[in-house]
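Thread: quick sanity check before group meeting

JM: Hey all, I'm pulling together slides for Thursday and realized we never actually wrote out the predicted structure for the chain we discussed last week. Dropping the sequence here so it's in one place. If anyone has concerns about the input, flag it before I start.
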Amino acid sequence: MIPKTLCLIKNTMSTLLCLFILFFYCSTTEAQKLTKRKVAKVFKSSEILQNHYTGFSLYDLKAMKPVYELEANKPAIPASNTKLFTLYTAVRMLGDSIPGLRYLTKGDSLIFWGTGDPSFLHPDLKSRRVYDFLKNSGKKLYYSHNNAGTDFNGSAIYQITPVSLPVIENRAQAFADKDGNLAIKPTFLKPYLHQDTAYHPETFQVLRDDKSNKFTYPQMPIPANYRQTLYLVPGAELTAASLTDTLKLPVNIINMNLPADAKTICSIPSDTLYRRMMLPSDNYLAEQILYLCSSLLPGKLSVDSAISYSSKKFLTDLPDEFQWRDGSGLSRYNLFSPRSIIKILIKLKDELETEERLLNLLPAGGVSGTLRNAYKTDQGQPFVWAKTGTLQNVHLQGGFFVTRKGKKYLYSFMNNNFMIPNTEIRDEMGRIITYFHEKY
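JM (edit): ok, ran it. Output follows.
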């Protein structure tokens, strides 16, 4: 028989062993876990992040709760992170395919209205369905501009003005041809190109009139490699002329309101357009996509109406007050907090249903888009997918990353009002997110 004292000692040792094992396991788990204290330590030790507004939110996708927040409730200029809100609005409103044209037929005539779809003969989207529909209709073509709600106003040559039916991105190219002469595409604009002996720029440059598609160039040698993008003033005349030139068919203008029973022809899969907007951060496409969303609302096409509708219908659950002014993020009047960026990422993830679909729409670190040079891959595989944003004194990222141990996080990393080069901010964000990936 074993003495009671011996049994007591044995039981005590067993208990201590269990406690030691439990303590060791918990310590090991804690060491592998990305905690609030550890993240705070990383941010506190960063000299680069101390001298400007830094807002940060880290969200655990498995636990579905924040891990760490730094100034996360304060609004900041989001730059191109605004495109996340444009993307979400489009996903909620447009469905799987982009509405390319509204139309109706009357006898031998085809009357059509633009929707704002920017894919028509876009050089990177290669959409031809609407082109083929118009080209092969066998009917007289009539274009109505009556549903267009935004006309060019002012003299800002590089202002992005939404167009109801943009053709080839609503811009022209002036260039030196093989004989050294000045040429322009599309060629129907050539009669509007004139030399002005009173125009004396420092270098050769074509100047567009403030409010019309008339161009002047100086009396000076044309550089051999000269090429210049010219943004065009939209309107019914430009659209009809562009279509006539492109289709090689006469396109007439008709003043007719869009009827409720007009039919719709779709152009391309929606994700094709969204990916082209998100990866290179295309400001033109972002503005056009919101304009396109408004084609499903009463009244004329308008970026403002799409923003108002989305704000009231889709974004009432954002955690902080926000200010939204455009589709691209070029406006410095846009204001969103890091917590709101996290929320829109969650909403996008839920709406798109599959993680793969969402990650396909975001730049991948070391692989694609605006993150190609911001990160290195890990053994050839990306570990971060995020939308960047850059303006003067503004640089940020908002998206996803996965650790080597397979843990998934959302993050919003906002930097405003710094006075050092963007590359230093970019490298510091990359260093911190890469550290989280490798360590945890």
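AS: nice. The radius of gyration is 28 Å. The CA atoms of residues 7 and 256 lie 98 Å apart.
JM: adding both to the slides.
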